[in-house]
Write a structure and sequence with these properties.
The complex is a heterodimer of chains A (172) and B (293). Chain A is an alpha+beta fold and 172 residues long. Chain A is 43% helix and 25% strand. Chain B has a two-stranded antiparallel ribbon. The chains are: A alpha+beta (172), B mainly alpha (293).
Chain lengths: 172, 293
């Protein structure tokens, strides 16, 4: 009588312990696998290049400013200018040290050079607030590009298109 | 639709009482769900607000001197009527879209728990899967209807109250009225994929928590957290996987040289959310023990 009891208990306990251990091991292996995959994915994702870069900001600001400058000159009664003749050339950087001219922020500074209607070279410093979605708000120097409201050729007060303007660029 | 249902029912316990042919179709359940939605005061009120609110918004904006310059097209709202729908589109993406769709999607499953009516509808001729798809389709229909009504109402309000002046593109060129109207509607249409993503999110939370408030507020809070992540300039790659990023995809349409990369990526991300959330909700509903409580 006393013999089968320890036998049975052993017979029941041993496989259960093994099963539990195996299940725990499998659980740990699965967890470890998930962690490794998640870490690899994160590393891959974080390692990707930034959405907001200097070439993208410069490539967008130049044409947008040139187009809006042509609009402003037309409003002021100087038609005949084209974006090509304005030839806006922006040079941008971020003023925060260590930013490597990458990433969203309100510290983007762009020095823009262009040609006005009389053929004289002009230059102005624009402050940009660039958002992570690739859209920015740019504000220029009032002395060179005029106040927020300007009087058009017909004598009516209208918004100065280059005083402050928005632009967006592709981040993919 | 009926054929696979009858074949599966022969090897299950439902063999005792075979389903009559011609009954138990998703479309029938869908019609009932739509009828239930149409009878709800909340649904009607939401659609009415979507119809009227843009006009009130434009009138209030018209009496103000300060322009909402922080949002795209905010500085042009007095200059062109086509700027109004784009301003509202940018603003609505923050929390209005998740709220509008989840008013129905977050409630459509949980309301059966609230009223204790699961047993009632499941003893009818429809299976759980059919009820699930009917309810999901109804929530999707509502989301599409809300988006359409809001888009048309915003465009009408802008054109009637401000005018149809040419619209400034995001590249500094002027778009003529006809082209601007088409682009505005296209821009609103790009909000549909992420909106359906939020619909699926609402359905999932509603099924898992069995609570309407959680189903309505949950997606809004998740949406706001995603906005916060984007605002704090988190890693760009993770930001691309957020469900609020596709709401910005319309920017590419309004450029002088349109770009569609964000729209393509955003649609894929939205589809991912849609499939994942619906799969979780479907599995949870199928496995749930409804007979026990």
């Amino acid at each position: 009588m006393p013999r089968p009891t320890p036998d049975r208990s052993c017979g029941v306990r041993a496989p259960r312990g093994r099963l539990v251990r195996r299940a725990r091991l499998a659980g740990r292996a699965r967890l470890a696998g998930t962690v490794v995959i998640a870490a690899a994915l994160t590393a891959m994702l974080v390692g990707c290049s930034a959405d907001v870069t200097r070439p993208r900001v410069e490539g967008s600001l130049g044409p947008v400013f040139a187009n809006l400058y042509v609009q402003q000159q037309t409003l002021l009664g100087h038609p005949g200018l084209t974006p090509t003749s304005v030839a806006a050339r922006p040079t941008c950087h971020r003023s925060t040290p260590g930013s490597h001219d990458k990433g969203a922020g309100s510290d983007w500074i762009c020095q823009v050079g262009w040609t006005d209607g009389t053929g004289r070279p002009q230059s102005g410093k624009f402050e940009l607030q660039v958002r992570s979605n690739g859209c920015y708000q740019a504000g220029g120097p009032t002395k060179i590009i005029g106040p927020i409201m300007i009087r058009n050729a017909a004598g009516k007060n209208v918004i100065n298109p280059v005083f402050e303007f928005d632009g967006c660029f592709d981040t993919t | 639709m009926t054929a696979p249902v009858t074949t599966t029912s022969t090897d299950g316990p439902a063999m005792v009482r075979p389903r009559p042919v011609g009954r138990g179709r998703v479309i029938t359940a869908y019609r009932w769900e739509i009828a239930k939605l149409a009878a709800q005061a909340r649904t009607r009120a939401t659609l009415a607000v979507c119809l009227v609110a843009p006009f009130v918004f434009v009138v209030l904006l018209d009496r103000q001197d300060r322009l909402p310059k922080d949002t795209l097209y905010g500085r042009w709202v007095h200059a062109s009527g086509f700027a109004t729908p784009l301003l509202i589109l940018g603003f609505a993406a923050q929390w209005v879209f998740p709220l509008l769709t989840c008013l129905v999607a977050g409630d459509i499953f949980a309301s059966e728990d609230q009223h204790g009516t699961w047993k009632t509808i499941l003893t009818r001729s429809h299976s759980r899967s059919q009820i699930f798809w009917a309810k999901t389709l109804a929530a999707t229909t509502f989301a599409t209807a809300v988006l359409t009504v809001l888009a048309l109402s915003c465009l009408t309000a802008g054109v009637l109250l401000v005018g149809h002046q040419p619209l400034e593109s995001l590249s500094g060129t002027l778009l003529p009225a006809g082209r601007a109207a088409g682009l505005v509607l296209a821009a609103w249409a790009t909000a549909l994929p992420p909106l359906l993503g939020f619909t699926a999110l609402g359905i999932m939370i509603s099924v898992l928590t069995r609570s309407s408030p959680a189903g309505i507020v949950g997606p809004i809070i998740l949406g706001l957290l995603m906005q916060l992540y984007a605002f704090l300039n988190g890693a760009d790659a993770i930001r691309h996987l957020l469900l609020v990023t596709p709401f910005d995809a319309w920017h590419g349409l309004l450029a002088a040289h349109p770009y569609y990369g964000p729209l393509r990526d955003g649609t894929l991300v939205s589809a991912g959310y849609l499939v994942l959330c619906l799969a979780v909700a479907f599995t949870a509903l199928r496995r749930r023990d409804i007979t026990g409580g």
